[in-house]
Write a structure and sequence with these properties.
The complex is a heterodimer of chains A (173) and B (426). With 173 residues, chain A is α/β, with parallel strands linked by helices. Chain A contains 7 helices and 7 strands; from the N terminus they run βαααβαβαββββαα. In chain A, strand 3, helix 5 and strand 4 form a beta-alpha-beta unit. The radius of gyration of chain A is 16 Å and the shape is globular. Chain B has 426 residues and is an alpha/beta fold. Chain B folds into 2 domains: 258 residues, Aconitase, domain 3; 145 residues, Aconitase, domain 3. The longest helix of chain B is centred in the first third of the chain and has 16 residues. Chain B contains 14 helices and 18 strands. Classes of the chains: A alpha/beta (173), B alpha/beta (426). At the A-B interface, helix 5, helix 6 and helix 7 of A face helix 5 of B. Bound molecules: iron/sulfur cluster.
Protein backbone atom coordinates (compact mmCIF):
# COMPACT_ATOMS: atom_id res chain seq x y z
CA UNK A 1 0.00 0.00 0.00
CA UNK A 2 1.33 3.40 -0.95
CA UNK A 3 1.58 6.14 1.62
CA UNK A 4 -0.43 8.40 -0.68
CA UNK A 5 -3.67 7.06 -2.13
CA UNK A 6 -5.24 9.08 -4.95
CA UNK A 7 -8.50 8.35 -6.65
CA UNK A 8 -11.77 9.48 -8.11
CA UNK A 9 -14.45 9.97 -5.49
CA UNK A 10 -17.90 8.47 -4.99
CA UNK A 11 -20.02 9.99 -2.26
CA UNK A 12 -22.45 8.26 0.11
CA UNK A 13 -24.74 9.65 2.80
CA UNK A 14 -25.03 8.88 6.51
CA UNK A 15 -25.77 5.53 8.17
CA UNK A 16 -25.29 3.42 5.06
CA UNK A 17 -25.66 -0.07 6.53
CA UNK A 18 -24.19 -3.35 5.32
CA UNK A 19 -27.46 -4.13 3.50
CA UNK A 20 -26.94 -0.95 1.50
CA UNK A 21 -23.44 -2.14 0.59
CA UNK A 22 -24.32 -5.72 -0.33
CA UNK A 23 -27.87 -6.99 -0.04
CA UNK A 24 -28.57 -10.09 2.05
CA UNK A 25 -29.78 -11.98 -0.99
CA UNK A 26 -26.25 -12.07 -2.43
CA UNK A 27 -24.61 -13.56 0.64
CA UNK A 28 -24.20 -16.96 -0.96
CA UNK A 29 -22.09 -15.51 -3.83
CA UNK A 30 -18.45 -16.36 -3.25
CA UNK A 31 -16.99 -15.34 -6.63
CA UNK A 32 -15.56 -11.79 -6.30
CA UNK A 33 -16.32 -10.94 -9.95
CA UNK A 34 -20.00 -11.78 -9.37
CA UNK A 35 -20.05 -9.97 -6.02
CA UNK A 36 -18.67 -6.73 -7.48
CA UNK A 37 -21.70 -6.44 -9.78
CA UNK A 38 -23.95 -5.87 -6.76
CA UNK A 39 -21.87 -3.49 -4.64
CA UNK A 40 -23.95 -0.55 -3.37
CA UNK A 41 -26.92 -1.78 -5.35
CA UNK A 42 -29.22 -0.15 -2.79
CA UNK A 43 -27.14 2.79 -1.56
CA UNK A 44 -25.53 3.94 -4.84
CA UNK A 45 -26.86 2.02 -7.88
CA UNK A 46 -24.67 3.78 -10.49
CA UNK A 47 -21.52 2.68 -8.66
CA UNK A 48 -21.17 -0.95 -9.81
CA UNK A 49 -21.50 -0.33 -13.59
CA UNK A 50 -19.17 2.69 -13.55
CA UNK A 51 -16.59 2.18 -10.80
CA UNK A 52 -12.91 1.85 -11.71
CA UNK A 53 -10.27 0.11 -9.64
CA UNK A 54 -8.70 2.65 -7.31
CA UNK A 55 -11.84 4.74 -6.85
CA UNK A 56 -12.38 6.13 -3.37
CA UNK A 57 -15.64 5.97 -1.43
CA UNK A 58 -16.42 8.84 0.93
CA UNK A 59 -19.29 8.53 3.40
CA UNK A 60 -20.93 10.26 6.32
CA UNK A 61 -21.39 8.96 9.84
CA UNK A 62 -21.75 5.32 10.92
CA UNK A 63 -20.77 3.61 7.68
CA UNK A 64 -21.30 -0.17 7.75
CA UNK A 65 -23.79 -0.42 10.59
CA UNK A 66 -26.25 -3.30 10.83
CA UNK A 67 -25.25 -6.92 10.47
CA UNK A 68 -21.64 -7.93 10.89
CA UNK A 69 -21.45 -9.67 7.49
CA UNK A 70 -17.96 -9.79 6.07
CA UNK A 71 -19.41 -9.80 2.54
CA UNK A 72 -19.73 -5.99 2.70
CA UNK A 73 -15.99 -5.19 2.75
CA UNK A 74 -15.38 -8.24 0.55
CA UNK A 75 -17.60 -6.64 -2.10
CA UNK A 76 -15.67 -3.33 -1.83
CA UNK A 77 -12.44 -5.22 -2.23
CA UNK A 78 -13.82 -7.08 -5.24
CA UNK A 79 -14.69 -3.72 -6.82
CA UNK A 80 -11.09 -2.60 -6.34
CA UNK A 81 -12.01 0.29 -4.05
CA UNK A 82 -8.78 2.14 -3.16
CA UNK A 83 -9.97 3.35 0.22
CA UNK A 84 -13.10 4.12 2.21
CA UNK A 85 -13.12 7.35 4.14
CA UNK A 86 -16.00 8.19 6.47
CA UNK A 87 -16.96 10.62 9.19
CA UNK A 88 -17.24 7.49 11.36
CA UNK A 89 -17.60 3.71 11.06
CA UNK A 90 -19.52 0.93 12.77
CA UNK A 91 -17.03 -1.16 14.76
CA UNK A 92 -17.17 -4.56 13.09
CA UNK A 93 -17.28 -3.09 9.57
CA UNK A 94 -14.13 -1.08 10.27
CA UNK A 95 -12.34 -4.18 11.57
CA UNK A 96 -13.50 -6.29 8.65
CA UNK A 97 -12.25 -3.68 6.13
CA UNK A 98 -8.78 -3.55 7.63
CA UNK A 99 -8.64 -7.33 7.98
CA UNK A 100 -9.49 -7.74 4.30
CA UNK A 101 -6.89 -5.14 3.32
CA UNK A 102 -9.26 -2.31 2.40
CA UNK A 103 -7.88 0.98 3.80
CA UNK A 104 -10.57 2.44 6.09
CA UNK A 105 -10.00 5.96 7.37
CA UNK A 106 -12.06 7.71 9.96
CA UNK A 107 -11.85 11.45 9.27
CA UNK A 108 -14.61 13.42 10.96
CA UNK A 109 -15.88 16.16 8.63
CA UNK A 110 -14.67 14.53 5.42
CA UNK A 111 -18.11 13.99 3.89
CA UNK A 112 -18.87 17.69 3.67
CA UNK A 113 -15.74 18.42 1.59
CA UNK A 114 -16.43 16.23 -1.43
CA UNK A 115 -18.69 15.90 -4.42
CA UNK A 116 -18.98 13.00 -6.79
CA UNK A 117 -16.16 12.99 -9.34
CA UNK A 118 -13.68 15.01 -7.25
CA UNK A 119 -10.22 13.59 -6.80
CA UNK A 120 -9.11 12.80 -3.27
CA UNK A 121 -5.55 12.51 -2.04
CA UNK A 122 -5.12 10.57 1.18
CA UNK A 123 -1.83 10.84 3.06
CA UNK A 124 -1.86 7.76 5.25
CA UNK A 125 1.00 8.49 7.64
CA UNK A 126 0.60 12.25 7.33
CA UNK A 127 -3.04 11.93 8.41
CA UNK A 128 -4.58 14.23 5.80
CA UNK A 129 -7.33 13.95 3.18
CA UNK A 130 -7.25 16.66 0.47
CA UNK A 131 -9.83 17.48 -2.18
CA UNK A 132 -7.57 18.22 -5.16
CA UNK A 133 -10.24 20.31 -6.89
CA UNK A 134 -11.01 22.66 -4.00
CA UNK A 135 -7.83 22.13 -1.95
CA UNK A 136 -10.06 21.75 1.10
CA UNK A 137 -8.58 19.31 3.59
CA UNK A 138 -9.34 17.45 6.77
CA UNK A 139 -6.89 15.85 9.17
CA UNK A 140 -7.23 12.49 10.88
CA UNK A 141 -5.22 10.54 13.44
CA UNK A 142 -3.08 8.20 11.29
CA UNK A 143 -3.73 4.49 11.68
CA UNK A 144 -1.41 2.82 14.17
CA UNK A 145 1.67 1.09 12.69
CA UNK A 146 0.13 -2.32 13.35
CA UNK A 147 -2.84 -1.63 11.10
CA UNK A 148 -0.71 0.05 8.42
CA UNK A 149 1.37 -3.14 8.30
CA UNK A 150 -1.79 -5.19 7.93
CA UNK A 151 -2.91 -3.06 4.96
CA UNK A 152 0.58 -3.09 3.51
CA UNK A 153 0.56 -6.86 3.07
CA UNK A 154 -3.02 -6.92 1.80
CA UNK A 155 -4.93 -8.05 4.85
CA UNK A 156 -5.06 -10.58 7.62
CA UNK A 157 -5.00 -13.76 5.52
CA UNK A 158 -1.74 -12.73 3.85
CA UNK A 159 -0.22 -11.43 7.08
CA UNK A 160 -0.89 -14.68 8.92
CA UNK A 161 0.29 -16.71 5.92
CA UNK A 162 3.65 -14.91 6.00
CA UNK A 163 3.96 -15.25 9.75
CA UNK A 164 3.31 -18.97 9.59
CA UNK A 165 5.82 -19.39 6.75
CA UNK A 166 8.44 -17.46 8.69
CA UNK A 167 7.82 -19.57 11.78
CA UNK A 168 8.18 -22.77 9.77
CA UNK A 169 11.37 -21.48 8.16
CA UNK A 170 12.78 -20.69 11.58
CA UNK A 171 11.82 -24.12 12.89
CA UNK A 172 13.39 -26.03 10.02
CA UNK A 173 16.40 -23.70 9.61
CA UNK B 1 -12.97 12.90 36.22
CA UNK B 2 -10.58 12.36 39.11
CA UNK B 3 -8.46 9.60 37.72
CA UNK B 4 -5.62 8.26 39.83
CA UNK B 5 -2.49 7.86 37.78
CA UNK B 6 -2.20 4.29 36.59
CA UNK B 7 -5.62 3.20 37.81
CA UNK B 8 -7.30 0.95 35.25
CA UNK B 9 -10.77 -0.32 34.42
CA UNK B 10 -11.65 -3.99 34.33
CA UNK B 11 -11.36 -4.11 30.52
CA UNK B 12 -7.97 -2.37 30.57
CA UNK B 13 -6.59 -4.77 33.16
CA UNK B 14 -7.76 -7.86 31.30
CA UNK B 15 -6.47 -6.63 27.94
CA UNK B 16 -3.19 -5.64 29.58
CA UNK B 17 -2.72 -9.16 30.88
CA UNK B 18 -3.75 -10.72 27.55
CA UNK B 19 -1.22 -8.63 25.66
CA UNK B 20 1.57 -8.77 28.22
CA UNK B 21 1.60 -4.99 28.68
CA UNK B 22 1.73 -3.55 32.16
CA UNK B 23 -0.51 -0.58 31.47
CA UNK B 24 -2.81 0.01 28.51
CA UNK B 25 -4.85 3.07 27.62
CA UNK B 26 -8.04 3.44 25.54
CA UNK B 27 -7.33 3.80 21.83
CA UNK B 28 -4.11 1.81 22.03
CA UNK B 29 -3.87 -1.22 19.73
CA UNK B 30 -2.74 -4.37 21.48
CA UNK B 31 -2.12 -7.89 20.31
CA UNK B 32 -4.06 -10.07 22.76
CA UNK B 33 -3.52 -13.76 23.49
CA UNK B 34 -6.85 -15.53 23.31
CA UNK B 35 -7.91 -17.84 26.14
CA UNK B 36 -10.97 -19.24 24.40
CA UNK B 37 -12.27 -19.18 20.82
CA UNK B 38 -15.84 -20.15 20.01
CA UNK B 39 -17.43 -20.77 16.62
CA UNK B 40 -21.02 -21.51 15.72
CA UNK B 41 -22.48 -22.01 12.24
CA UNK B 42 -20.94 -18.77 10.94
CA UNK B 43 -17.61 -20.46 11.65
CA UNK B 44 -18.15 -22.42 8.43
CA UNK B 45 -16.88 -19.24 6.72
CA UNK B 46 -13.71 -19.42 8.80
CA UNK B 47 -12.54 -22.62 7.15
CA UNK B 48 -11.66 -21.01 3.79
CA UNK B 49 -9.45 -18.19 5.14
CA UNK B 50 -7.88 -20.60 7.65
CA UNK B 51 -6.73 -22.82 4.80
CA UNK B 52 -5.63 -19.85 2.64
CA UNK B 53 -3.41 -18.79 5.51
CA UNK B 54 -1.60 -22.06 5.06
CA UNK B 55 -2.22 -23.10 8.65
CA UNK B 56 -1.78 -26.82 9.14
CA UNK B 57 -2.89 -26.89 12.75
CA UNK B 58 -5.06 -25.04 15.23
CA UNK B 59 -2.99 -23.16 17.79
CA UNK B 60 -4.54 -24.93 20.79
CA UNK B 61 -7.39 -27.41 20.18
CA UNK B 62 -8.15 -27.53 23.91
CA UNK B 63 -9.26 -23.89 23.77
CA UNK B 64 -11.58 -24.08 20.79
CA UNK B 65 -15.30 -24.74 21.15
CA UNK B 66 -17.59 -25.35 18.18
CA UNK B 67 -21.30 -25.18 18.94
CA UNK B 68 -24.07 -26.02 16.53
CA UNK B 69 -27.02 -23.99 17.72
CA UNK B 70 -28.94 -21.81 15.28
CA UNK B 71 -30.52 -24.58 13.22
CA UNK B 72 -30.90 -27.70 15.41
CA UNK B 73 -31.59 -30.10 13.86
CA UNK B 74 -30.75 -28.63 10.45
CA UNK B 75 -33.93 -27.07 9.07
CA UNK B 76 -32.56 -26.04 5.66
CA UNK B 77 -30.10 -27.51 3.22
CA UNK B 78 -27.80 -24.52 3.73
CA UNK B 79 -27.69 -25.21 7.48
CA UNK B 80 -26.99 -28.90 6.87
CA UNK B 81 -24.03 -27.95 4.69
CA UNK B 82 -22.65 -25.56 7.31
CA UNK B 83 -22.95 -28.25 9.97
CA UNK B 84 -21.13 -30.69 7.72
CA UNK B 85 -18.28 -28.22 7.08
CA UNK B 86 -17.85 -27.74 10.83
CA UNK B 87 -17.90 -31.48 11.59
CA UNK B 88 -15.28 -32.12 8.94
CA UNK B 89 -13.15 -29.24 10.16
CA UNK B 90 -13.30 -30.55 13.74
CA UNK B 91 -12.30 -34.03 12.59
CA UNK B 92 -9.49 -32.82 10.32
CA UNK B 93 -7.82 -30.60 12.93
CA UNK B 94 -8.52 -32.79 15.98
CA UNK B 95 -10.83 -30.36 17.72
CA UNK B 96 -12.48 -32.40 20.46
CA UNK B 97 -14.96 -29.82 21.76
CA UNK B 98 -17.71 -29.97 19.19
CA UNK B 99 -21.19 -29.56 20.65
CA UNK B 100 -23.09 -31.47 18.02
CA UNK B 101 -26.79 -32.23 17.74
CA UNK B 102 -27.84 -34.31 20.74
CA UNK B 103 -25.48 -32.72 23.23
CA UNK B 104 -25.78 -29.20 21.96
CA UNK B 105 -26.86 -25.82 23.24
CA UNK B 106 -26.80 -22.15 22.35
CA UNK B 107 -23.10 -21.33 21.97
CA UNK B 108 -22.93 -18.76 24.78
CA UNK B 109 -24.84 -21.00 27.16
CA UNK B 110 -22.58 -24.01 26.66
CA UNK B 111 -19.55 -21.76 27.22
CA UNK B 112 -21.14 -20.60 30.48
CA UNK B 113 -22.35 -23.92 31.85
CA UNK B 114 -19.21 -25.86 31.04
CA UNK B 115 -16.81 -23.26 32.44
CA UNK B 116 -15.07 -22.44 29.16
CA UNK B 117 -14.62 -18.79 30.08
CA UNK B 118 -13.18 -17.87 33.48
CA UNK B 119 -12.28 -14.63 35.27
CA UNK B 120 -9.56 -12.64 33.55
CA UNK B 121 -9.97 -14.38 30.18
CA UNK B 122 -9.95 -12.85 26.73
CA UNK B 123 -12.59 -14.82 24.82
CA UNK B 124 -13.78 -14.32 21.25
CA UNK B 125 -16.63 -15.89 19.30
CA UNK B 126 -18.17 -15.64 15.85
CA UNK B 127 -21.37 -14.26 17.35
CA UNK B 128 -22.25 -10.75 18.44
CA UNK B 129 -23.66 -11.87 21.81
CA UNK B 130 -20.33 -13.34 22.94
CA UNK B 131 -20.47 -10.32 25.31
CA UNK B 132 -22.57 -12.52 27.62
CA UNK B 133 -19.51 -14.33 28.96
CA UNK B 134 -18.18 -11.05 30.38
CA UNK B 135 -20.44 -11.82 33.34
CA UNK B 136 -17.66 -13.96 34.84
CA UNK B 137 -15.24 -11.01 34.78
CA UNK B 138 -13.74 -11.61 31.34
CA UNK B 139 -13.44 -9.62 28.12
CA UNK B 140 -15.63 -11.53 25.66
CA UNK B 141 -16.36 -10.12 22.24
CA UNK B 142 -17.66 -11.00 18.78
CA UNK B 143 -15.36 -11.24 15.74
CA UNK B 144 -15.76 -11.88 12.01
CA UNK B 145 -14.96 -15.19 10.34
CA UNK B 146 -11.60 -14.09 8.86
CA UNK B 147 -10.46 -12.83 12.23
CA UNK B 148 -11.48 -16.13 13.73
CA UNK B 149 -9.28 -17.87 11.16
CA UNK B 150 -6.31 -15.81 12.36
CA UNK B 151 -7.16 -16.62 15.97
CA UNK B 152 -7.29 -20.34 15.19
CA UNK B 153 -3.92 -20.12 13.43
CA UNK B 154 -2.05 -17.93 15.91
CA UNK B 155 -4.04 -17.79 19.14
CA UNK B 156 -4.06 -14.01 19.17
CA UNK B 157 -5.71 -10.99 17.57
CA UNK B 158 -5.39 -7.22 17.43
CA UNK B 159 -7.71 -5.18 19.58
CA UNK B 160 -8.20 -1.51 20.20
CA UNK B 161 -8.43 -0.92 23.95
CA UNK B 162 -11.96 0.44 24.45
CA UNK B 163 -12.94 3.32 26.70
CA UNK B 164 -15.28 2.11 29.46
CA UNK B 165 -18.73 3.12 30.58
CA UNK B 166 -19.44 2.42 34.24
CA UNK B 167 -23.00 1.44 35.12
CA UNK B 168 -23.51 1.52 38.90
CA UNK B 169 -26.70 -0.09 40.11
CA UNK B 170 -28.20 0.29 43.56
CA UNK B 171 -31.51 -0.52 45.21
CA UNK B 172 -33.48 -3.72 45.60
CA UNK B 173 -35.36 -5.39 42.76
CA UNK B 174 -39.00 -5.82 43.74
CA UNK B 175 -40.87 -9.11 43.52
CA UNK B 176 -41.41 -10.12 39.92
CA UNK B 177 -38.67 -7.74 38.74
CA UNK B 178 -35.44 -9.38 37.54
CA UNK B 179 -32.11 -8.85 35.80
CA UNK B 180 -33.82 -8.61 32.42
CA UNK B 181 -35.84 -5.61 33.56
CA UNK B 182 -32.69 -3.96 34.84
CA UNK B 183 -30.76 -4.43 31.59
CA UNK B 184 -33.75 -3.32 29.49
CA UNK B 185 -33.82 -0.11 31.48
CA UNK B 186 -30.06 0.35 31.02
CA UNK B 187 -30.28 -0.25 27.24
CA UNK B 188 -33.07 2.34 27.10
CA UNK B 189 -30.79 4.82 28.85
CA UNK B 190 -27.58 4.12 26.90
CA UNK B 191 -29.37 3.53 23.52
CA UNK B 192 -28.34 1.07 20.81
CA UNK B 193 -25.33 3.12 19.72
CA UNK B 194 -24.38 4.71 23.06
CA UNK B 195 -21.67 2.18 23.87
CA UNK B 196 -20.28 1.64 20.34
CA UNK B 197 -16.59 0.61 20.48
CA UNK B 198 -16.82 0.67 24.28
CA UNK B 199 -16.67 -1.63 27.27
CA UNK B 200 -19.56 -1.55 29.73
CA UNK B 201 -18.69 -2.39 33.32
CA UNK B 202 -21.46 -3.04 35.85
CA UNK B 203 -21.06 -2.71 39.59
CA UNK B 204 -22.99 -1.94 42.75
CA UNK B 205 -24.97 -3.81 45.40
CA UNK B 206 -27.81 -4.76 43.04
CA UNK B 207 -25.38 -6.43 40.64
CA UNK B 208 -23.70 -8.28 43.53
CA UNK B 209 -27.13 -9.56 44.61
CA UNK B 210 -27.94 -10.93 41.13
CA UNK B 211 -27.60 -14.65 40.43
CA UNK B 212 -25.03 -15.70 37.84
CA UNK B 213 -27.94 -16.49 35.55
CA UNK B 214 -29.19 -12.90 35.73
CA UNK B 215 -25.66 -11.55 35.37
CA UNK B 216 -25.37 -13.42 32.09
CA UNK B 217 -28.63 -11.84 30.96
CA UNK B 218 -27.29 -8.38 31.85
CA UNK B 219 -24.00 -8.78 29.98
CA UNK B 220 -25.75 -10.47 27.03
CA UNK B 221 -27.67 -7.31 26.21
CA UNK B 222 -24.65 -5.00 26.26
CA UNK B 223 -24.53 -6.05 22.59
CA UNK B 224 -27.76 -4.09 22.18
CA UNK B 225 -25.87 -1.00 23.41
CA UNK B 226 -23.35 -1.49 20.59
CA UNK B 227 -20.69 -2.45 23.14
CA UNK B 228 -17.53 -4.36 22.34
CA UNK B 229 -17.90 -6.14 25.67
CA UNK B 230 -19.87 -6.02 28.91
CA UNK B 231 -18.53 -7.24 32.21
CA UNK B 232 -18.93 -7.75 35.94
CA UNK B 233 -15.93 -8.16 38.27
CA UNK B 234 -15.84 -11.67 39.75
CA UNK B 235 -16.87 -12.41 43.34
CA UNK B 236 -17.69 -15.47 45.49
CA UNK B 237 -20.75 -16.24 43.35
CA UNK B 238 -18.59 -16.33 40.24
CA UNK B 239 -16.04 -18.63 41.84
CA UNK B 240 -18.79 -20.93 43.20
CA UNK B 241 -20.40 -21.08 39.80
CA UNK B 242 -17.14 -22.12 38.14
CA UNK B 243 -15.71 -24.26 40.94
CA UNK B 244 -16.63 -27.59 39.40
CA UNK B 245 -16.39 -26.64 35.74
CA UNK B 246 -13.55 -24.13 35.11
CA UNK B 247 -11.60 -25.41 32.13
CA UNK B 248 -8.43 -23.45 32.74
CA UNK B 249 -6.70 -21.32 35.38
CA UNK B 250 -8.44 -18.15 36.53
CA UNK B 251 -6.76 -14.75 36.65
CA UNK B 252 -9.39 -12.75 38.48
CA UNK B 253 -8.99 -8.99 38.39
CA UNK B 254 -10.94 -6.11 39.85
CA UNK B 255 -11.08 -2.56 38.50
CA UNK B 256 -8.81 -0.10 40.31
CA UNK B 257 -10.43 2.56 42.44
CA UNK B 258 -10.09 5.85 40.59
CA UNK B 259 -9.99 4.28 37.11
CA UNK B 260 -11.06 6.59 34.28
CA UNK B 261 -14.51 6.02 32.80
CA UNK B 262 -15.78 7.87 29.79
CA UNK B 263 -19.21 8.00 31.34
CA UNK B 264 -20.77 6.93 34.63
CA UNK B 265 -24.45 6.00 34.78
CA UNK B 266 -26.21 5.52 38.10
CA UNK B 267 -29.36 3.44 38.18
CA UNK B 268 -31.52 3.05 41.28
CA UNK B 269 -33.91 0.12 40.93
CA UNK B 270 -35.95 0.76 44.09
CA UNK B 271 -39.60 0.77 43.07
CA UNK B 272 -38.75 -0.03 39.42
CA UNK B 273 -41.56 -1.93 37.66
CA UNK B 274 -40.97 -4.67 35.05
CA UNK B 275 -39.81 -3.18 31.75
CA UNK B 276 -40.55 -3.93 28.12
CA UNK B 277 -38.73 -2.97 24.89
CA UNK B 278 -41.31 -2.05 22.26
CA UNK B 279 -40.98 -2.34 18.47
CA UNK B 280 -38.72 -1.74 16.66
CA UNK B 281 -35.66 -1.29 18.82
CA UNK B 282 -34.28 -2.73 22.06
CA UNK B 283 -33.80 0.81 23.36
CA UNK B 284 -37.47 1.71 22.91
CA UNK B 285 -38.04 0.78 26.55
CA UNK B 286 -41.12 1.59 28.64
CA UNK B 287 -42.47 0.46 32.02
CA UNK B 288 -44.44 -2.73 31.36
CA UNK B 289 -47.54 -1.62 33.33
CA UNK B 290 -47.93 1.37 30.97
CA UNK B 291 -47.81 -0.87 27.91
CA UNK B 292 -50.19 -3.36 29.57
CA UNK B 293 -52.81 -0.59 29.86
CA UNK B 294 -52.89 -0.41 26.06
CA UNK B 295 -54.10 -4.03 25.76
CA UNK B 296 -51.52 -5.12 23.21
CA UNK B 297 -52.78 -8.46 21.87
CA UNK B 298 -50.18 -11.10 21.00
CA UNK B 299 -50.17 -13.98 18.53
CA UNK B 300 -47.03 -15.70 19.71
CA UNK B 301 -44.96 -15.73 22.89
CA UNK B 302 -41.38 -16.98 23.01
CA UNK B 303 -39.51 -18.05 26.13
CA UNK B 304 -36.02 -18.88 24.92
CA UNK B 305 -32.66 -17.55 23.59
CA UNK B 306 -29.23 -17.04 25.13
CA UNK B 307 -30.65 -14.04 27.00
CA UNK B 308 -33.21 -15.85 29.13
CA UNK B 309 -33.64 -19.63 28.79
CA UNK B 310 -31.47 -20.87 31.61
CA UNK B 311 -32.85 -23.31 34.20
CA UNK B 312 -33.45 -20.44 36.66
CA UNK B 313 -35.56 -18.62 34.05
CA UNK B 314 -37.55 -21.73 33.20
CA UNK B 315 -38.11 -22.64 36.87
CA UNK B 316 -39.49 -19.18 37.68
CA UNK B 317 -41.69 -19.28 34.61
CA UNK B 318 -42.92 -22.83 35.28
CA UNK B 319 -43.77 -21.96 38.87
CA UNK B 320 -46.00 -19.17 37.58
CA UNK B 321 -47.40 -21.24 34.72
CA UNK B 322 -48.41 -24.18 36.92
CA UNK B 323 -52.14 -24.88 36.74
CA UNK B 324 -52.78 -22.07 34.24
CA UNK B 325 -53.55 -22.29 30.54
CA UNK B 326 -52.11 -20.51 27.54
CA UNK B 327 -54.73 -18.10 26.18
CA UNK B 328 -56.77 -19.43 23.29
CA UNK B 329 -55.27 -18.42 19.96
CA UNK B 330 -51.80 -17.76 21.41
CA UNK B 331 -48.81 -19.92 20.47
CA UNK B 332 -46.39 -20.20 23.41
CA UNK B 333 -42.98 -21.56 22.38
CA UNK B 334 -40.56 -22.58 25.12
CA UNK B 335 -36.99 -23.52 24.11
CA UNK B 336 -34.35 -24.27 26.74
CA UNK B 337 -30.89 -22.81 26.09
CA UNK B 338 -29.06 -26.16 26.17
CA UNK B 339 -29.57 -29.91 26.13
CA UNK B 340 -28.47 -30.04 29.75
CA UNK B 341 -31.20 -27.59 30.69
CA UNK B 342 -33.69 -29.60 28.64
CA UNK B 343 -32.88 -32.67 30.74
CA UNK B 344 -33.20 -30.71 33.95
CA UNK B 345 -36.63 -29.53 32.79
CA UNK B 346 -37.58 -33.11 32.07
CA UNK B 347 -36.54 -34.30 35.53
CA UNK B 348 -38.09 -31.39 37.39
CA UNK B 349 -41.48 -31.72 35.69
CA UNK B 350 -41.10 -28.35 33.95
CA UNK B 351 -41.88 -29.81 30.54
CA UNK B 352 -45.13 -31.25 31.93
CA UNK B 353 -46.18 -27.89 33.30
CA UNK B 354 -45.67 -26.10 29.99
CA UNK B 355 -47.14 -28.77 27.74
CA UNK B 356 -50.17 -29.24 30.02
CA UNK B 357 -50.72 -25.49 29.78
CA UNK B 358 -50.80 -25.75 25.99
CA UNK B 359 -47.29 -24.50 25.21
CA UNK B 360 -44.90 -26.04 22.68
CA UNK B 361 -41.76 -27.21 24.46
CA UNK B 362 -39.01 -27.58 21.85
CA UNK B 363 -35.52 -29.02 21.84
CA UNK B 364 -32.73 -26.62 22.66
CA UNK B 365 -31.66 -24.18 19.94
CA UNK B 366 -31.78 -20.47 19.09
CA UNK B 367 -35.31 -21.39 18.03
CA UNK B 368 -37.61 -18.44 17.31
CA UNK B 369 -35.03 -15.81 18.30
CA UNK B 370 -33.73 -14.92 14.85
CA UNK B 371 -36.35 -15.68 12.21
CA UNK B 372 -34.37 -18.31 10.36
CA UNK B 373 -35.25 -21.54 12.08
CA UNK B 374 -38.73 -21.94 13.59
CA UNK B 375 -41.43 -19.84 15.18
CA UNK B 376 -41.41 -17.36 12.29
CA UNK B 377 -44.14 -14.72 12.34
CA UNK B 378 -46.63 -13.57 9.70
CA UNK B 379 -46.27 -9.91 8.68
CA UNK B 380 -49.11 -8.49 10.78
CA UNK B 381 -48.38 -10.56 13.89
CA UNK B 382 -47.20 -9.57 17.35
CA UNK B 383 -44.78 -11.56 19.50
CA UNK B 384 -43.74 -11.18 23.14
CA UNK B 385 -40.26 -12.59 23.69
CA UNK B 386 -37.63 -13.15 26.34
CA UNK B 387 -34.86 -12.67 23.72
CA UNK B 388 -32.69 -9.63 23.04
CA UNK B 389 -33.55 -8.08 19.65
CA UNK B 390 -36.72 -6.69 18.15
CA UNK B 391 -35.43 -4.90 15.06
CA UNK B 392 -37.60 -5.06 11.91
CA UNK B 393 -37.31 -8.51 10.36
CA UNK B 394 -35.82 -10.17 13.42
CA UNK B 395 -38.41 -12.96 13.48
CA UNK B 396 -39.12 -12.99 9.77
CA UNK B 397 -41.17 -10.26 8.07
CA UNK B 398 -40.12 -6.67 8.71
CA UNK B 399 -43.63 -5.57 9.71
CA UNK B 400 -44.05 -8.10 12.55
CA UNK B 401 -43.87 -6.49 16.00
CA UNK B 402 -41.76 -7.89 18.84
CA UNK B 403 -41.85 -6.89 22.51
CA UNK B 404 -38.90 -7.91 24.72
CA UNK B 405 -39.51 -8.82 28.36
CA UNK B 406 -38.57 -11.09 31.27
CA UNK B 407 -39.40 -14.83 31.40
CA UNK B 408 -42.26 -14.44 33.90
CA UNK B 409 -43.67 -11.55 31.87
CA UNK B 410 -43.91 -13.97 28.94
CA UNK B 411 -45.99 -16.31 31.13
CA UNK B 412 -48.38 -13.54 32.19
CA UNK B 413 -48.66 -12.44 28.56
CA UNK B 414 -49.24 -15.97 27.23
CA UNK B 415 -51.97 -16.54 29.83
CA UNK B 416 -53.75 -13.25 29.25
CA UNK B 417 -53.29 -13.11 25.48
CA UNK B 418 -52.02 -9.55 25.74
CA UNK B 419 -48.97 -7.91 27.26
CA UNK B 420 -49.36 -8.38 30.99
CA UNK B 421 -47.60 -7.59 34.26
CA UNK B 422 -46.17 -10.76 35.83
CA UNK B 423 -46.80 -9.35 39.29
CA UNK B 424 -50.52 -9.97 38.78
CA UNK B 425 -49.79 -13.70 38.94
CA UNK B 426 -47.45 -13.73 41.96
S1 LIG C 1 -30.35 -17.16 20.90
FE1 LIG C 1 -30.66 -15.48 19.49
S2 LIG C 1 -29.25 -13.86 20.14
FE2 LIG C 1 -28.63 -15.78 21.14
S3 LIG C 1 -27.05 -16.63 19.80
FE3 LIG C 1 -29.00 -17.53 19.17
S4 LIG C 1 -29.81 -16.18 17.55
FE4 LIG C 1 -28.17 -15.07 18.60
Amino acid sequence: MQDVIRGRVWVLGENVDTDGIISGKYLTILDPAELRKHVFEIALPEFAPNAQPGDIVIAGRNLGSGSSREAAPAALKAAGVGAVVADSFARIFFRNCINLGVPAIEAAGVRALFEKGDTARIEMTGGRVVNERTQAEVRFPPLPAHLLDLLEVGGLVEKVRRELLAAKGAASG
Amino acid sequence: MSASAGAQTLAEKILGRASGVEHVVPGEIVEGRVDLAMMHEQGAQTVGPFQQMGADRVWDPSRVVIAIDHWVPASTEGAAVMHRILRKFAAQYDLPHLYDVGHHGICHQVLAEDGWVVPGDLAVGTDSHTNMLGAVGAVASGVGPTEMAAVLALGRLWLKVPPSIHVRVSGELGEGVVGKDLILRAVGEVTTSGAAYKAVEFSGPTIRALSMSDRFTVCNMTTEMGAKCGMIAPDEKTFDYLRATAKHAMHPVAPDPGATYERVIDIDVDGMPPMVACPYSPDNVRPLPDVAKEHVKVDQVFLGSCTNARIEDLRQAAKMMKGLKVHKGVRYIVSPASSAIYQQCLHEGIIDIFTEAGAVFTNSSCSACFGGNMGILAPDEVCASSSNRNFPGRMGPKEARIYLMSPTATVATAVKGEIADPRELL
